[in-house]
């Protein structure tokens, strides 16, 4: 701000306000005289012997590093300091009016300009003309006028205001008492504040009352400053005011004792969201309670929790798993602990597989939920993955970086190995820093308000909001709740405009997650979906030896038609011996997969060999590993010993039957299945057994010849011969001779008898048939009797 001078003829000795001809400046290590200023150009005349005249822009001249205006002695003048006018915003309306009035009075004293005079020429009032009166006389005249008007202002006050206005401008007219602020800690000593923060629940101790904190601070203050204790120790009310200023309350102390660990520090701010420009560049994953009760596998109410992910760029929800949550418990003294349920590392790994695979539409869903009827780029998605033909409108996203919290499931080795297999970087959030996962933390509340409260069995997020008869309501099975979640995501979340999604070309247009996904695909291309075989490697992995009985996993035996190919066979990998890698899913334990790495390079052979549960035919519905464990506990409690696989399988089927029928026999049966979350869509292509066979043409098929052997003698040696058969053999019957049949192998274990099967080795059976056919042929040549089953009678 320009400072008015006392007289128009007076020259200011302060810093120059503008570049004027005749000034001496320093520029580019030389001295120049400003010859002329023409618009934005300055003409410089060199004053040094080796200098040259120049013509430069004002902005270039002033922006030079060594630019300075020189005085008569050749010394650089101090640059003008601009006043900080932001303090005017701290004044109220009355104070601003007072400053304006003083400005008008001071200007009249210094320049002679009368109050409320218009711009242009003016005539000073009598006694205020600087050309005929002194400044002291003007001070006294202004003080007399203020006193006559009833305003406060002595001669000394007017003089002080004028001198301050000349030095500081309008800031000098402000009463500094108006800008005075109170201390953050009041009138308490800062050393006392330091002791309060030091004695606040030190070392992670249990919390106490504020009176205990006051006693601790008092003891510490007396020990640290014994001579100044009386002056530094505040009154009781002052001390509690200090605690309030510091934000220390009983509730904050309880939170600190409950959450803070030894040496744990809060993360420093400020925080800013990461900028993303690609799909899956940053995907946040979290688990949250769904505030819903569902019906578990055993028909009992159970709380559930949701584990899902959200893409930062498109706000899409590409995957979600609802898992029952039940704490572990003991039953009776000395009994072993029943394992609890909750989200595990496998669930987080299967969540990644869901993100990279299409979601099949469920029966009964509206046709509008299909991807072909949505805003998604269906043509590009179908060309990339044929499974999108009947898929729901949930996009496929391949994560590049996942942001997780510090839960145990995300620190597990299985989840880390799954991310490393897929090439996904894991970025853990900082401790107690919700800002690192701000998007998914806000989405948790949106899901509970948009989905949970409309589902049967909603419990509310607090105990005072829970109904009295929630457990007795018709609760949804876990599978049905999982399907409802997927349907809500497809029909509601993906099609609702989101305020955080704006079109890059039309910022006023609010987009839906599906529309934002389509825009991102148009810019970067379609993410590559994962194949079922790639997703299969995310299952749990175990090392097992294939024996003649099959594979043993969790007290279950799995068999396959290819057991002989791997029975006690070495894997060829050093350190593994005969232990082959087995992949299995505890949510679908009916089948496990053996991975044969020796045929990886052979396109004609599949390295994945399926093994099925031996007693699967006893279980007539879907079941899980958790239900198997519960059935094993029930069988063990009844028999006081570990049950067999067959007994446990029957117990699993009984639990499923009871869950379907309900607790009362008179109640109508409810169609329900065991909890099978939406994990991996692993579909096996159906094998055509007639592939490669030429179709038969009518009239060209010839009938097979009739057998010339009796049906009872078709497979000799399979049944113990009766007395009649022994006589027939002795009389020259059709039984083969003992020397034609191979001697029995006594080291071989006798085969188990099966009601509808064959016993004995196939080689023995057909060897006997060939011997019988040769004997019959020779006898027919030596005898005129026709061959047939009634030859003995003839």
Description of the molecule:
With 794 residues, the protein is α+β, with helices and mostly antiparallel strands. It has six domains: 47 residues, no CATH class; 89 residues, no CATH class; 70 residues; 250 residues, 2-Layer Sandwich (Nucleotidyltransferase, domain 5); 123 residues, no CATH class; 67 residues, no CATH class. The protein is built from 22 helices and 16 strands. The strands form three sheets. The chain has a six-stranded antiparallel β-sheet with strand order 11-14-15-16-13-12, with no helix packed on it. Strands 4-3-2-1-5 form a five-stranded antiparallel β-sheet. Strands 8-7-6-9-10 form a five-stranded mixed β-sheet, sandwiched between helices. A hairpin with a 7-residue loop joins strand 7 and strand 8. The radius of gyration is 47 Å and the shape is elongated. The relative contact order is 0.06.
Largest sheet: 6 strands, antiparallel
Global geometry: elongated
Query: CATH top level of the largest domain?
Result: Alpha Beta
Distance between the termini: 141 Å
* Gyration radius over CA: 47 Å
CATH architecture title of the largest domain: 2-Layer Sandwich
Tally of separate helices: 22
Provide the CATH topology of the largest domain. Nucleotidyltransferase, domain 5
Number of strands: 16
**Arrangement of strands in the largest sheet:** 11-14-15-16-13-12
β-strand percent reads 5-15%
Instruction: Give the low-pLDDT segments.
Output: 1-15, 260-267, 328-340, 663-674, 720-741, 745-749, 751-761, 783-794
Number of domains: 6
Q: Name the structural class.
A: alpha+beta
| Mean of pLDDT | 78
Helix percentage range: 25-40%
- Which superfamily, in CATH terms, is the homologous superfamily of the largest domain? Ribonuclease H-like superfamily/Ribonuclease H
């Amino acid at each position: 701000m320009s400072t008015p001078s006392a007289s128009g003829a007076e020259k200011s000795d302060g810093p120059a306000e503008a570049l004027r001809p005749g000034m001496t400046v320093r520029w580019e290590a030389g001295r120049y005289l400003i010859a002329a200023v023409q618009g934005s150009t300055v003409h410089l005349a060199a004053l040094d012997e080796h200098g040259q005249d120049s013509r430069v822009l004002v902005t270039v001249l002033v922006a030079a590093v060594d630019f300075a205006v020189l005085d008569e002695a050749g010394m650089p003048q101090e640059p003008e300091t601009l006043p900080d006018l932001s303090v005017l915003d701290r004044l109220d309306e009355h104070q601003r009016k007072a400053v304006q009035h003083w400005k008008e009075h001071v200007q009249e004293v210094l320049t002679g300009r009368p109050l409320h005079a218009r711009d242009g020429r003016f005539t000073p009032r009598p006694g205020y003309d600087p050309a005929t009166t002194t400044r002291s006389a003007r001070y006294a005249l202004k003080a007399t006028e203020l006193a006559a008007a009833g305003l406060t202002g002595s001669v000394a006050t007017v003089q002080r205001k004028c001198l301050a206005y000349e030095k500081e401008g309008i800031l000098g007219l402000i009463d500094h008492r108006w800008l005075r602020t109170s201390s953050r800690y009041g009138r308490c000593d800062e050393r006392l504040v330091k002791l309060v923060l030091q004695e606040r629940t030190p070392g992670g101790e249990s919390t106490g009352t504020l009176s205990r904190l006051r006693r601790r601070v008092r003891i510490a203050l007396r020990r640290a400053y014994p001579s100044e204790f009386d002056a530094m120790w505040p009154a009781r009310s002052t001390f509690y005011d200090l605690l309030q200023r510091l934000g220390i309350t009983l509730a904050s102390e309880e939170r600190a004792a409950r959450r803070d660990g030894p040496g744990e520090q809060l993360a420093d701010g400020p925080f800013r969201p990461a900028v993303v420009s690609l799909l899956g560049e940053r995907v946040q994953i979290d688990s949250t309670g769904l505030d819903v009760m569902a019906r578990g596998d055993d028909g009992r109410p159970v709380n559930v929790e949701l584990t899902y992910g959200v893409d930062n760029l498109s706000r899409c929800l590409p995957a979600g798993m609802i898992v029952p949550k039940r704490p572990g418990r003991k039953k009776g003294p000395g009994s072993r602990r029943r394992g609890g349920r909750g989200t595990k590392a496998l669930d987080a790994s299967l969540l990644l597989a869901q993100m990279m695979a299409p979601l099949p539409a469920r029966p009964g869903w509206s046709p509008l939920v299909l991807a072909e009827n949505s805003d998604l780029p269906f043509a590009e998605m179908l060309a990339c993955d044929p499974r999108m033909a009947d898929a729901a409108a949930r996009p496929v996203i391949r994560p590049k970086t996942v942001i997780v919290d510090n839960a145990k499931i995300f620190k597990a080795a299985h989840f880390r190995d799954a991310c490393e297999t897929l090439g996904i970087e894991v970025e853990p959030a900082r401790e107690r820093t919700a800002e690192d996962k701000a998007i998914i933390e806000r989405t948790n509340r949106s899901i509970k308000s948009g989905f949970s409260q409309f589902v049967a069995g909603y419990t509310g997020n607090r105990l005072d909001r829970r109904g009295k008869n929630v457990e007795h309501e018709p609760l949804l099975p876990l599978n049905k709740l999982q399907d409802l979640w997927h349907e809500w995501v497809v029909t509601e979340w993906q099609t609702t405009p989101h305020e955080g999604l704006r079109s890059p070309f039309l910022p006023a247009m609010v987009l839906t997650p599906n529309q934002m996904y389509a825009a991102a695909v148009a810019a970067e291309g379609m993410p590559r979906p994962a194949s079922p075989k790639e997703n299969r490697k995310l299952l749990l992995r175990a090392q097992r030896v294939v024996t003649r009985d099959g594979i043993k996993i969790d007290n279950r035996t799995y068999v396959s038609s290819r057991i002989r190919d791997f029975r006690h066979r070495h894997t060829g990998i050093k350190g593994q011996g005969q232990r082959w890698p087995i992949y299995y899913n505890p949510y679908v334990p009916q089948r496990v997969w053996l991975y044969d790495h020796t045929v990886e390079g052979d396109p004609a052979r599949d390295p994945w060999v399926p093994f099925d549960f031996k007693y699967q035919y006893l279980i007539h519905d879907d079941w899980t590993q958790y239900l198997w464990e519960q059935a094993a506990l029930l069988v063990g409690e009844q028999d006081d010993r570990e049950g067999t696989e067959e007994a446990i399988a029957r117990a699993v089927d009984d639990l499923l039957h009871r869950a379907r029928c309900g607790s009362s026999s008179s109640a109508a049966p409810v169609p329900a299945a065991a909890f099978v979350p939406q994990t991996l869509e692993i579909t096996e292509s159906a094998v055509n057994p007639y592939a490669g066979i030429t179709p038969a043409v009518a009239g060209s098929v010839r009938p097979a010849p009739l057998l010339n052997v009796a049906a009872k003698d078709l497979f000799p040696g399979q049944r113990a011969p009766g007395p009649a058969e022994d006589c027939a053999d002795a009389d020259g019957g059709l039984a083969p001779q003992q020397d034609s049949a191979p001697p029995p192998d006594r080291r071989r274990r006798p085969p188990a008898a099966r009601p509808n099967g064959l016993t004995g080795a196939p080689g023995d059976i057909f060897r006997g048939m060939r011997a019988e056919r040769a004997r019959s042929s020779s006898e027919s040549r030596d005898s005129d009797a026709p061959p047939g089953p009634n030859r003995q009678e003839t």
